[in-house]
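Final report, section 2: Outcomes. Of the targets proposed, Large ribosomal subunit protein uL23 is the one most frequently requested by collaborating groups, and we therefore present its record in full.
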Amino acid sequence: MTIKTPFVTEKASMMLESDGKLQFIVRHTADKKKIARAVEEMFAHEVTSVTTMMTMKGQKKAIVTFADKKAGEEILSRLGIL
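The predicted structure is given below as tokens.
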């Protein structure tokens, strides 16, 4: 499985509200295309871009941008986080 867990912090919540972007902790071996494909398959929303970075704890984090700005809120509410 490419995606491990959603990454929800205060900063991530602000990014969701302003830009409609979600953050996920992903596998170290996952590339941007695999992440985009996994998110699209899991949540049935079109992904426009993926940015990856390493956290200070050594985890790989992906910031996912959706075509529909409200998709992020809908996904988090389906997961029971928002």
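Residues 3-79 form a domain with the Alpha-Beta Plaits fold (CATH 3.30.70.330).
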